[in-house]
Amino acid sequence: xxxxxxxxxxxxxxxxxxxxxxxxxxxxxxxxxxxxxxxxxxxxxxxxxxxxxxxxxxxxxxxxxxxxxxxxxxxxxxxxxxxxxxxxxxxxxxxxxxxxxxxxxxxxxxxxxxxxxxxxxxxxxxxxxxxxxxxxx
Length: 137
Fold this sequence. Notes:
This protein is mainly alpha-helical. It is built from 4 helices and no strands. It has one domain. It has helices at 6-29, 33-60, 70-102, 106-136.
């Protein structure tokens, strides 16, 4: 398999993680704990696969420059900046949120998850947007 397919794989993994997160959110709102757990563990697994694939791609290929210009370049750079900063921040947030859930510290888990969830969802969705703007736009 060529590494050139990895950006598409990464976008699919990000989109699937976002869908798993949304399903997990709906499940917990409906008090379906087992479904929530399965969805969120799936999202963690998909995000871990994404990170691995992302690192492999960039180690092999490097950066892919944005070809657009004008106001779309400003939009792209704004999305990329927020995506990158929050992608760095989300790793310890997800790790701690997951740790608290696995340790049955559910009150602390829920409190942190209220912060973690929207950031993690934003990072996953904007990952797809960045891919689209770089490779499809």
